[in-house]
Amino acid sequence: MIKGSDILVRALENEGVDCIFGIPGEETLDFLESLRKSKKIKFVPTRHEQGAIYMAANYARLTGKPAVCLATLGPGMLNFCNGAGYAQLNGMPLVLIAGQKAIKNRPQAGFQRVDAVATMKPLTKFAMQIASPEMIPPTVSEAFRIAQEGKKGPVYIELPEDIAAEKCEEVALIAPHKRELPIANDAALDRAAALITAAKRPLLVFGAAAPRRAASCPGLIAVMEQFVNRTGIPFFTTQMGKGAVSEDSHLYMGTAALSEGDYVHDAVDKADLIITIGHDTTEKPPFLMGPKGREVIHIGDQSPPVEQVYFPQSEVIGDIGHSLKALADRLEGKLPNARALLPLREEILSRTSDGADDASWPITPDRLVHEVRKSMGEKDIVALDNGQYKLAFARSYRTNHPNTLLLDNELATMGAGLPSAMMAAMLNPERRVIAVCGDGGFLMTSQEIETALRLMVNLVVLILVDGSYGMIGWKQAARGFPDFGISFGNPDFVKLAEAYGAKGTRVETLDDLVPALEAAFEGGGVHLVEVPIDYRIDELRSGKAKPPSA
């Protein structure tokens, strides 16, 4: 005889799971005991369910494999909600497991009981309660299939405590199988090739799904670079498309930090044809389509939804790598107008360096990017939380490898920066990893510093201090509103670091920033570096700064 929780652990091992992140609970005691006996799966307790789900989601982002996290019923699983939305919009394959009260009797009536499956259905691709031990293998197999099918995303499995403890005869597991993507048909490829050949000013854009797909298909990076070089068409990226092709390329035109009116839109507005590669419409739009104007070809694994600002006139749907190879074969040497927009490159990129030499203090976002770049190697990793500084990093931080600038431009949630950096440090101990967080976002998950110390990762956390929700202040100023509801107090971050057993440094001059970062990296362990930042909101109010675009 075998109990349900043992079957679940075996089913997870069967799917290749090697790590589970989460928080224990009374309703998961049988599962935890089965997990304790596993020789293949490590359990990583965190200090909050959001920390667990952000870590798991970024495990999926960086490896391309489904990750697993655990919570108890009610108050635990409800803390999964923000992270479920994060994984759903960002296309991260994630298996959420939570306990539940017994379903065959109700000795505690409605205590802590919420309808978790109904709660999770709109936030996941699949949500199901397991009602018998025998149903565990097919439910787990189906959950992993759905998490990885199409646009990857989260799924939810609920294991009631009586089903976890129930014994039954041995149940056969279902062997995982490789899933192949369909490929684009020749008619679609020929139609796209004809449009590109006829274009007078073509432009490429790499979106979120390009590097995301490359995590599970490493050869795709080389294919994308070859497509750019074989066609000679200049390219830009969305914020989450950064790293799909090296930004050292002579054809790189910039990154769209905004939807319109940004530096790169000098080229976007002049293009008569835009070819999007892996664009995901859950990302904030890199450009806006209207009823008239340029044509757009969408190249991706699946058709995009029709949006008010994105409705491609032509599509090439199927495995992106196959599509790009087939198109390059049709186009190479046949595009006399391929580089028509390239003369705009120098001016666009020079403008992204504006402010890199600003010597004022507190530091400005543009200068911050310039200083951080000095301490980071080609394959080192910067993980951003969400705030005003994200736009400066998107524009100006050059990335030549995928997943070396981790940011979120889809849910754009605060609080994910520290856990995502922790995951990057766990998976890449040979690289430098830095989390860049505003003081607002950092304090949403700052308790995970203890988790980072327990995991013995090497991690620098750069905390940008202005005592307010700076992005909201920027938006208020742009609309002529006074500051309201955005200011807060902060702890002494150096003492906070020391209280956890980490190291802390407060930077008080511009010249001290890079030496402080270098010392933090060289010293190893977890090191918080506090830096004051000036988002120039006062300049915006005085009319000296450009307001943020939509």
Features:
about 550 residues; alpha/beta; Rossmann fold; 3 domains; 6-stranded parallel beta sheet; 22 helices; 20 strands; about 35% helix; about 15% strand
- What percent of residues adopt helix (DSSP H or I)? 25-40%
Oligomeric state of this protein: single chain
Number of helices: 22
β-strand percent reads 15-25%
Topology of this structure?
Blueprint: E1 2-3, H1 4-14, E2 19-22, H2 29-36, E3 42-45, H3 49-63, E4 67-71, H4 81-90, E5 94-100, H5 116-120, E6 127-129, H6 136-148, E7 154-160, H7 161-165, E8 167-168, H8 186-198, E9 202-206, H9 209-214, H10 219-231, E10 235-237, E11 252-255, H11 265-268, E12 273-277, E13 295-300, E14 314-317, H12 320-331, H13 345-352, H14 365-375, E15 381-384, H15 389-396, E16 405-406, H16 417-427, E17 433-438, H17 439-442, H18 448-455, E18 459-465, H19 470-478, H20 493-500, E19 503-506, H21 513-523, E20 526-532, H22 537-542
